[in-house]
């Protein structure tokens, strides 16, 4: 068994009591219905509006979030077992569940690979590594000074919630292709405007 297969099996085991709910959640996050992205944005907006109105401390937010997760982890599998009978679990659902767990493990591997590639740049291309790091951190510092923390959190959470649907619909790929083409065209125009060296 490969390491990837072991991770998939471990994830499937961890989500065993949640599998019906996970499949329902998957449909929402990949925008199975036309109203799903609106529901995701609406849910995120309602949550952050409550946080803005109540203005709790960060410790309170983390504590309440942890409490909600703990209660859900205890209650939902018990409630779900009474709604979703084991005999209704079909081979098609099992295949969907397997594909979802595989996708999660593959995305985790991609993130780890990208992080490892970026970190290796410190040894292979130090100027690029430090340049990118300084620019990225300076941009984050500027955004942090320019916008409210709660608004930044709202934008990040909403984008994270919309990301699976955008990926599933091919929007991320199209956007990255357009950015790549734009940067390539800029570099090509920049090179063509450079004066030719005289012999």
TrEMBL record:
GO cellular component: endoplasmic reticulum; membrane
Ranges for domain RETREG1-3/ARL6IP-like N-terminal reticulon-homology: 18-185
Compartments it resides in: Membrane
Pfam families (UniProt xref): RHD_RETREG1-3 (PF24456)
UniProt topology in membrane: Multi-pass membrane protein
Keywords: Membrane, Transmembrane, Transmembrane helix
Residues forming coiled coils: none
Chain segments annotated as transmembrane: 35-54, 60-84, 128-144
PANTHER family the UniProt entry points to: ADP-RIBOSYLATION FACTOR-LIKE PROTEIN 6-INTERACTING PROTEIN 1, ADP-RIBOSYLATION-LIKE FACTOR 6-INTERACTING PROTEIN
Protein name stated in the entry: RETREG1-3/ARL6IP-like N-terminal reticulon-homology domain-containing protein
Species in which this protein is naturally found: Zophobas morio
